[in-house]
Amino acid sequence: MKKVFKISLLALLTVTLFACNNDDDNSNPIDPGTDVTIAQFVADNDDYSSLEAALEVAGLTETLNSGEFTVFAPNNLAFEAFLNAAGFASLDDVPVDVLTNILLNHVVTGTNESTDLITGYINSLATEASSGANLSLFVNTAGGVQINGVATVTTADIEASNGVIHAVDAVIGIADVTTQALANPNFSILVEALIAASDTDLDYVALLSGSANAPFTVFAPTNEAFVDLLNALGFASLDDVPQDALRTILNYHVLASANVRSSDLEDGQTPTTFEGTTIEIDLESGAQVIDATGVVSNIIVVDVQTGNGVIHAIDKVLLPSAIASAVTPTLTGLAYTNPDLTSLYAALKITGLDAALADTAAEFTVFAPTNDSFAAFLDAAGFSSIDEVPVDVLTQVVLNHAIAGALFAGDLTTSYGNTLATYGDSSNNLSIYINTDSGVTLNGQSNVVLPDVPAANGVAHVVDAVIGLPTVVTFAVADPTFATLVAALTRDDQPDYVSVLSTGLGVDPAPFTVFAPTNDAFGDLLVELGAASLDDIDGATLTATLNTHVIAGANVRAEDLVSGTVGTLGADIEIDATNATITDLNGRVSNIIVTNVQAANGVVHAIDKVILPEL
Prior knowledge:
The protein is an alpha+beta fold. Strand 16 (415-422) and strand 17 (429-435) form a beta hairpin. It is elongated, with a radius of gyration of 35 Å.
């Protein structure tokens, strides 16, 4: 069933108000007051005799004596320039139907004073021949008021009894697709692309300005969409894109011989593009276009009607299969071109990391969470969408999935690595525990489901869960070397160590420095105490022992260790920074065998002997 959707024609651009210039230096018509109609004002002012004559020829004088309109009124000099440019000796040489539509292109229904004019599109009374749809005018208030990039308001807010007049310095001709692309600065890269793809055999500007193959329907990517594409494909600028590839891409955005307005779009339509292959229209989740890669582009502005076709602005460049299969995308590009990684791509865009992971001068390994993974992460965190996650938090989460250098599956071993996320406001990278005993598991919470997806600047491994920012508990649970420590921490007669040691950074008693005994260290302790198992150690002794392994309120990395006495949550210990040892109150010496397992709320150092309080 046909679905008609409506999207604000002003959604694409920043809405700004502009009061038009009323300098006395301009050619100011006399304000007629509100008892004079628009047509009478024109007739009473010699500077608008050409406009008066044109209205008479077109039979529009009576129209502008009634109704309520806004008229952008060209003076005699403007008409003279128009006739010269079009090769007409006088108004009598202009076909009446052409002249009528041009005049109607200066008229907008209703009263739009200068304070009502905002950057965006409005409709004139002129129409497109095949559809009868009203033509669009692009109003740009960035510096004065410009219409379609060709006419500037020189005097605004000339009040009339049936509307308002804004004097302009040029006739506003019937815009074509190219005219509107040139007029809107948000399409400037599209215009550059059309020029770059043109040569003596094919001139895109001429093609989209003409009547051959018209009317056109153009899905026009914004500047931001083109920047995203360049990042995705690893190009520094349009100059780096091969001309034949650029042509293929541009052709994929054009439907020929069809003026397809938003009301004509139907869910599931698969129109054939100028490139020769199809795109798909999806209206189930808003107005969207799906390209050959399966990636969705949102239609963000609809029905920019021109004299030879209609434009719909989109937020993503569409890629035909000929391009998608011929290029090796960057890591950012993998997310850009994979419909299962759109949430990751959104996260990259929000955090500004899309440019970093598109850098072909560097190499990265990215563990890429699927859309389902992000949905589960957001749900668990209590967010309804990715936009609700604080940007600084989201940035660190995304960086926690990236490692410097390209590590393919064969390069991964059970060990600790460093991600690009950092601890607090320091430059200390967070650790990641990679376990390859059965597949590849990351921090005990995320599994690689699709390894070795090559990119132009590294490799991606698709994972089934977002790798959250680790706490010191995360590493204790993830690393089987600490299984006995976890069993001790979670024993029923112990305090809730898991909750305490999961305290976020900036909340007392975090951060923590944990000296974590290995399984072998606990095994040696049992022998030392003559105990058969951990259960033989009474609760109070176990609590005092575990407390003696934790320093609260400090993130003491190996390079920060200083020889001397240090207070823990249990008893004092003696640090020998030179030899990386710890001596407890019983004279027992423990060696620090693994250092700087950095979590978001503290740091873990593995030791080979359990530290005991004074016995």
